Amino acid sequence: MAQLKSISAFSSSNLAFHGPKRESFPYHGKVCCPGKLSSFQELGARQSELQGNAFAVSSGNGSVTRAHDKQVIRAVLPSYSETEVSGSTKERGLRGKLNKVVLAYSGGLDTSVIVPWLRENYGCDVVCFTADVGQGLKELEGLEKKAKASGASQLVVKDLKEEFVKDYIFPCLRAGAIYERKYLLGTSMARPVIAKAMVDVAKEVGADAVAHGCTGKGNDQVRFELTFFALNPKLNVVAPWREWDITGREDAIEYAKKHNVPVPVTKKSIYSRDGNLWHLSHEGDILEDPENEPKKDMFMLTVDPEDAPNEPEYVDIGIISGIPVSVNGENLSPASLLDHLNQIGGRHGIGRVDMVENRLVGMKSRGVYETPGGTILFAAARELESLTLDRETMQVKDSLALKYAELVYAGRWFDPLRESMDSFMEEISKTTTGSVTLKLYKGSITVTSRKSPYSLYRQDISSFESGDVYDQADAAGFIRLYGLPIRVRAMLDS
User: What's the superkingdom here (predicted)?
Assistant: First the structure.
């Protein structure tokens, strides 16, 4: 029961993980993954304070700035004395000179040391940026203090949840994009929306560079930097993990001490995790051996299907032009709809995937994903298409969906090819409107009903009873013509 209560606390306002944070090294291909996560009961305590997707960050002078939805929260920090952090912002650094750098920031060990490293090596002012893509607001607490202690001049926070779901997740859902048969692209979709926001912030604050904490072995470095290239090719890009001598957690701690950056004592996570409103991924530790079964206590969004309720739950998904709009008859905003389905799917153990995938950089990696709401939406959308798309259109759409998924996985969100394919997906989905009812039971999804005003299914035609539209006698001529190549080939052997 405690486990079920923890799942019910899951919402876009209180997910128990936050974007770019990593307390374990090396990165294992994720730009930002938190350390060991606590229970949803503990981390969901602030939900009542944060209704309406609004939250506040206090600045050094005690003032509070509040933001709703896509508005920016900016905490301007007091000037940091140059004697406290090595590296002058007025002089050339050890590796060159940059004016101002926008850093993807979480407040974890890695990004905390990147701030003074940038100042020391590029003599630059550092603006920290944090994106809320539904990973939870718990870790926003204390970010101003951490950024100030590291030497940042400014903290910018943007709530991107609605934009993330509406402009990135839902187009992928409409396209049917799944990478290598299983992966629903949770991390892949989040990176371009974060990187786009970083480009916007760089323009707002007059920065000439952006920086990220991606490892040189992973996919995320590509996803971030291709977005930077597409939206502002003049920006300089700094990737410390490809430049510095820090090789692990202990090196980072020593660097922090040397530069007077306080590092909180935290329990090192055994897993590398990345979470947002769409999914939670797990990598590392025993998962690095594909023969090992994941431990039961590793999962955080979904209960074990064996422990799920003994009674099924029915959920009705309303869809207009390939885009979900309602759950059980209630119209919801994109982020709210996904959040609600995450709660429903999570308590029934829906959406667990264990896979070995091919990273863009060439190596294989093993990951376990939890995507409860997304799995429900994919099942509903594909089922509705069975009514509204003809055979040829469905086959072409499915073939293009593979390429669409490859582009998203490879970080080519702003590639003209993906944008053109998205226009195609939008056009052929205009009639994908209706509703689908699904039965959720112990990790499984069963379709129980589907209907659409544009349904191509005709009971009077499909019925075994005789009808006026279809004359069964016509089938004889059709079969003879359809089978003509087979008959001709057989004649050669006779």
Answer: Eukaryota
